[in-house]
Amino acid sequence: MSSIIINNYYFDKPLTSDNSGFSKWGIGRRNGKYYFVKEFLSPVYPVDDSMFSEQKRKEKIALCDAFVQEKQKMYSAINEVTDGNLVGIEQFFRVGAKFYISTLAIPKPFLSVGEICDFPFYERLMLCAAVAHAIAGLHSKNIVHADIKPDNVLVRRGKHPEAKIIDFDCSFFEENAPKPGEELNGDMVYLSPEAFLHIIGEESNLSCKMDVFALGLLFHQYMCGFLPYFDTDEYQYAYESVLDDKPLSVYPRMNTTVADLLTKMLNKDPAARPKMSAVFNCLHSLLLRVMNRDPAAAQPDRQTPPTPVREVRQNSDNPFFNHGGDLI
Question: What's the pLDDT tens digit per position in 86-105?
Answer without folding.
Answer: 999 999 999 999 999 999 99
